[in-house]
Design a protein that fits this description.
Low-confidence stretches: 1-27, 54-58
Distance between the termini: 58 Å
Mean pLDDT: 94
Radius of gyration: 26 Å
Strand content: 25-35%
Structural class: alpha+beta
Largest sheet: 9 strands, antiparallel
Number of helices: 17
Strand order of the largest sheet: 2-11-12-13-14-20-18-17-16
Helix content: 25-40%
Length: 719
């Protein structure tokens, strides 16, 4: 049976993580010593015994992916990012299920081999299964290749000689999303060409997908010197290539290479990703490090910089939420990546920028001006929210969420990214125009935004959602600022409207009202009003900020969405309540299923591989415990480490063309220079002890920028 964090939560408090640590360090008979060594450093997640996922319960199995193709282990479904089937809002459009050729099992003398252990190698993005066959240890490895995105790999390696082995492919039923156009074998390679059944829009083409793999042998003899290698090629027509030729060439090329040669570039690219990542050390609870690494793995394996097709709450490996892109992307995933993996993060916004024209069409269909990015989007950027869902018509804060993410991207940009503002200005201008056409002037000269669904979706359709109005105002301010920076004219009346959007504040309680008509003590679904403080950074008095946090955290529905804990924890850190933030982190573990730390939408199940939760938790680490504060002119670190955390380390923190390595410990901060793109001449460093300037031209990799016990360090590059 799958073991969840919730199952093992003996009480809400410090005992639960201690129990996890004791359990996960107990002896495991079938697990080799080298796996245990990797697990000790939180680089590998282990299962003693093997419990395949079943449709009856929440999946415990992890996914493997390379940002282009992905699958859940033991699943009969393979998904490729950008490949959708179904008509717009009607069907609706959803990720097209490809019967997975990576769903494989071993048989010995005709009987299925039962694995005795399994491991998810986070560092190398590989899933391993270990079995005992005729007294010989046999390991199967599953890989979606990072640098060769069209390549999937399955290998079998034995420690001694084993005969009469058969590899069986378990692809499940035919897909309702695809029509097989042709299939057959050529030169010992089987290829299957398929086409989606229905395009997303009436003007969209029916996209094609091809899978190829060598014909499976009827019987194998394995020994320690001869691994079995099954390369699988996958390609889709959206790439602008012939999928059949690409998939076939992938298999032919891989078949002529050794296994070490095939895996070297995959391992190297993942090593580069992890070298820049955020890591957390805890001498008390190993599950903290494991949950951080597993959450980042879930994000990294769903994304690549050369394929800007965004993310969905269920990643690429599932059809959760139909594979659509929501506000989850800009609000919960993007910020967790921006500081250390800027190119990965930017690909998420590039997806939006490339669909600006479609967003204009959506706005016009509702009678608005500018751009209206739909609540749910797929391949084309048209509205693919199921037609029964009111969110598709009324959850409009997404427009501001996108603009806010663009602000964060531009605030961190190098001077060498001098075209970035021009590239994103049409998006920002369109969003500003949308809000102007949506806002209505009241008799008191203030502007209202009627008929919206706020982040607290349980509220339904309301007027003057405080977060929606505030993020709308900020959207307009951002557009005006960028217009001035690139020499574009921007209507002054737009800025005036932004200054007069109604922000509801109850003066007697000194708290913001979530929306017009909100009654005190009403339960809410998730963080909403508190988003004014983070990520929006809305200006307010300190007492109002704390009042909002205390009140709205107290009325949030328990066990609803994990991201609420993340948002509240970041603010607890900023208000100096570090241990409260740590407790919220432990509480979030209820959304994770052991042993592979698979996120779920709720503590009791829901959509698996829920990477929205992973993104929220990583923001908890970066902007809460790590205390990162992104400004227009400086990047600040104000760590807030609870007793359970020894250190937070940023392998790379990138800001305005400068790469730094930053390590925060209980009583110190250390920032070291790594590299520069040449756009910065000096660094101004401000700490508790004062300010000093550093000549960048005199720095070499590893030189200190700051080391000391300051509570806050701000680094400002100067061109």
């Amino acid at each position: 049976m799958p073991v969840s964090m919730c199952d093992m939560q003996v009480e809400r408090g410090i005992l639960a993580p201690l129990l996890f640590t004791l359990l996960l360090t107990s002896a495991r008979a079938c697990i080799p010593a080298e796996w245990e060594a990797e697990a000790k450093h939180a680089d590998m997640l282990l299962m003693d015994g093997y419990f395949p996922s079943t449709p009856a319960g929440p999946t415990q199995q992890p996914s493997i992916g390379n940002g282009f193709a992905a699958t859940v282990i033991d699943s009969d479904a393979l998904f490729v990012s950008g490949l959708f089937n179904g008509e717009g809002r009607k069907t609706p459009s959803h990720r097209a299920r490809i019967p997975s050729p990576l769903s494989l099992s071993l048989h010995h003398h005709g009987k299925e081999v039962e694995p005795c252990a399994a491991g998810l190698d986070l560092r190398r993005a590989s899933f391993l299964r270990r079995s005992q066959v005729g007294g010989v240890s046999v390991v199967e490895t599953f890989v979606t290749h990072r640098s060769l995105r069209h390549l999937l790999l399955y290998t079998v390696q034995a420690e001694g000689e084993v005969n009469n082995i058969t590899v069986v492919m378990n692809r499940g039923s035919a897909s309702d999303d695809l029509t097989v156009v042709q299939s057959g074998e050529e030169e010992g390679v089987f290829c299957e060409d398929s086409r989606i059944v229905q395009a997303e829009t009436s003007t969209s083409p029916l996209e094609n997908v091809t899978l190829c793999w060598p014909s499976l042998p009827t019987s194998l003899t394995l020994d320690s010197n001869t691994p079995f290698i099954l390369p699988i090629g996958v390609s889709i027509s959206i790439e602008g290539v012939d999928p059949h030729s690409t998939a076939l060439a992938t298999v032919v090329s891989a078949s002529n290479r050794t296994l070490p040669d095939l895996l070297s570039s995959h391992y190297a690219e993942w090593e580069e990703i992890w070298s820049k990542s955020v890591t957390v050390e805890s001498e008390l609870y190993s599950n903290i490090s494991r949950s951080v690494n597993a959450s980042y793995y879930a994000l990294y394996s769903s994304l690549r910089s050369d394929w800007p097709y965004s993310l969905s709450p269920g990643g690429i490996a599932t059809n959760g939420y139909n594979g659509h892109t929501f506000w989850d992307c800009e609000t919960w995933m993007f910020p967790s990546l921006l500081v250390q993996h800027r190119t990965l993060a930017e690909s998420l916004l590039r997806y939006r920028q490339l669909r600006t024209s479609a967003a204009m069409d959506v706005a016009a269909s509702y009678g608005y001006k500018g751009t209206m990015y739909p609540w749910e989007s797929g391949l084309t950027g048209e509205n693919v929210t199921p037609d029964w869902a009111q969110t598709g018509d009324f959850e409009l804060h997404l427009e501001g969420d996108i603009a806010l993410a663009v602000r964060q991207l531009l605030d961190t940009a190098s001077q060498k990214d001098d075209k970035l503002e021009e590239e994103y200005y049409p998006l920002l201008k369109g969003i500003a125009e949308f809000w102007i056409s949506k806002a209505e002037e009241g008799s008191d000269g203030m502007f209202d935004i009627f008929n919206v669904i706020p982040p607290d979706e349980d509220a339904g359709i309301v007027n003057n959602s405080v977060y929606t109005n505030a993020v709308a105002a900020e959207s307009i301010f951002i557009a005006a600022k960028i217009a001035a920076a690139i020499g574009e004219s921007f209507p002054a009346e737009y800025v005036d409207v932004a200054h007069h959007l109604r922000i509801l504040l109850d003066n007697s309680s000194r708290r913001h009202l979530e929306y017009e008509g909100y009654e005190w003590e009403m339960e809410i679904k998730q963080a909403d009003v508190t988003l004014l403080q983070y990520p929006l950074g809305w200006d307010m008095d300190d007492d109002i900020a704390l009042n909002d946090l205390n009140y709205y955290q107290g009325v949030t529905k328990e066990g609803s969405v994990a991201m609420a804990n993340s948002a509240y924890a970041i603010l607890r850190c900023r208000h100096g309540q570090t241990e409260e933030a740590m407790q919220l982190y432990f509480d979030q573990l209820e959304w994770i299923t052991l042993p592979f730390y698979v996120w779920h939408e709720t503590p009791t199940g829901g959509n698996p591989n829920f990477i929205t939760g992973a993104g929220g938790m990583m923001q908890h680490v970066v902007y809460g415990f790590g205390g990162v504060q992104i400004g227009e002119k400086q990047l600040c670190f104000q760590p807030s480490l609870p007793a359970a955390i020894t250190s937070v380390r940023f392998g790379t923190a990138t800001y305005k063309g400068i790469d730094m390595e930053v390590e925060e410990r209980q009583s110190s901060i250390r920032a070291a220079y790594l590299s520069s793109d040449g756009s910065v001449t000096k660094l101004s460093v401000v700490s508790d002890s004062g300010e000093h300037s550093i000549d960048v031209s005199q720095l070499k990799a590893g030189d200190l920028i700051y080391e000391g016990s300051s509570s806050r360090v701000c680094i400002a590059p100067i061109g």
